[in-house]
Amino acid sequence: MRDNFLKKTVLYKSHIQLKAKMIPYSGFCMPLQYTSSLVEHMSVRNSVGIFDVSHMGKFLLKGKHSKKLLQYLTTNNLSKITSGQAQYSCLVNHLGGIIDDLVIYKISEMEFLLIVNASNIEKNKIWIHKNINEKDDNKFFDLSQKYSLLSIQGPNSLEAIQKLTNISLYKIPFYHFIIGKFSGIDEVLISRTGYTGSKGFEIYIHNKYAENIWNEILKIKTNSFQVTPCGISSRDSLRLEMGYRLYGQDLSEKITPIEAGLSWITKLEKKFIARKILKQQKKEGKYKKFISFVIEEKGKIPRQGYLLKNKDNFIVGNVTSGSFSPILKKGIGLGYINNNSKIEKNSYFISIRGKNIPIRIVKLPFVKI
Q1: Which of 53, 58, 277, 327 counts the highest number of beta carbons within 10 A?
Q2: What angle (nearest 5°) sits at the alpha carbon of residue 124, between those of residues 121 and 130?
Q3: Strands (DSSP E) along 281-314, which ranges?
Q4: What does the radius of gyration of the chain's CA atoms come to, in whole angstroms?
Q5: Cα–Cα nearest to 2, from 34, 31, 27
Q6: Residues 220 and 161 sit within 8 Å (Cβ to Cβ)
Q7: pLDDT in tens for each of the 369 residues of the chain?
Q8: What are the structural domains, with CATH classification, of the chain?
Q9: Contacts of 164 by beta carbon, 8 Å cutoff, 6+ apart
Q10: 54/210 Cα distance (integer angstroms)
Q11: Nearest to 110 by CA among 77, 63, 154
Q12: Neighbours of 180 (CB within 10 A)
């Protein structure tokens, strides 16, 4: 796809000035990397990095019945969180397939911010509008093109950005947020969230302030660290080390949250779309199984689409995400075994260039931070 037809975040010129390698991603022209994906990956694991993830969709749902609507459309239980807290969840269709995975921020009992995947913005809007009851007073706003999202990640992230706000960031628990002043700007949402597994924060700001705040954060430097700009390549390897799913690869409308190993965000005690189907699926156990695995053989890296085989050389599944782990210094991957039987550890192989390489199934995360 030519750059002319791709959307750009308001930080596009900043990425060009930093000599980022730009690529098409989810309909946007996004920075793949600035220096090297390995350097950026290790900066986040050991110090602090900043990502422009403004391409993500940002919806606001307001109204007396907004919570009721979201409880019906999503798999997790919103009644379990309080105002100022965020929750990871899934939008599912009538058959239980995952329309999208998302993070819901509870601003108040009648106001919720939904962060969705960029490639699914229009699909999600249509689905939510389709399910809004005209008799209810719910109001839906798409803020995707009005607000930017910066993600500051790594063990030094708190120390780095604390300089820009009077809010005591250490008091914000994981998956909670505060709306306050940041870098002199009022009404900034600062959340203790991220897609890397390292400590970090995400900051939601109006587009007109994004460039100034991006530059302010990049200027932060101490004797022990400086903030590194990071692209989507390192973001992908970081999320994979944690086993975080990626929509379009590990998740789709043909995969249910039960199959995807997301039973922990599928609260079958509440009423929601496809609850009966998912409850029956979990009870019967007849579904493809999500797996996470390591390749011990040096130099062998799993990639999306590689086939998984059993000891009898029959194809039993495929890899959905795979890469080299800079921390483990091994190939790691996510995928699905397509049969209905119980997963047998150390009984599977990955086909790489015609050779069957043994894989070792492990529990997530691959890397403990």
Answers
A1: 58
A2: 140
A3: 289-295, 307-310
A4: 21
A5: 27
A6: yes
A7: 455 689 999 999 999 999 999 999 999 999 999 999 999 999 999 999 999 999 999 999 999 999 999 999 999 999 999 999 999 999 999 999 999 999 999 999 999 999 999 999 999 999 999 999 877 889 999 999 999 999 999 999 999 999 999 999 999 999 999 999 999 999 999 999 999 999 999 999 999 999 999 999 999 999 999 999 999 999 999 999 999 999 999 999 999 999 999 999 999 999 999 999 999 999 999 899 999 999 999 999 999 999 999 999 999 999 999 999 999 999 999 999 997 777 888 899 999 999 999 999 999 999 998
A8: 3-56+145-241 (3.30.1360.120), 57-142 (3.30.70.1400)
A9: 182, 183, 213, 216, 217
A10: 9
A11: 63
A12: 14
Cα–Cα dist 320/316, whole Å:
13
The three-state secondary structure class of 271 is coil
Cβ-based neighbours of 336, under 8 Å, separated by 6 or more? 255, 259, 288, 289, 290, 291, 317, 318, 320
Residue 322: alpha-carbon gap to chain centroid:
16
Token readout for 293 is 């695995």
210 φ, ψ (degrees, to nearest 5)? -60, -45
- Token digits of residue 253: 């409308």
Quote the tokens at residue 23.
């690529």
**Structural tokens at position 156:** 């030094």
Residue 167, token pair as written in the block = 């809010």
Among 348, 280, 346, 360, which Cα is nearest to 318's?
Answer: 348
Residues 347, 316 contacting (CB under 8 angstroms) = no
Residues contacting 111, CB < 8 A, separation 6+: 60, 61, 62, 66
Q: Is residue 14 helix, strand or coil?
A: helix
Query: How many C-beta atoms lie closer than 10 Å to residue 343's C-beta?
Result: 12
Provide the token pair at 78: 């919103």
Per DSSP (E only), the strands in 118-193 are 139-142, 147-153, 177-182, 185-191
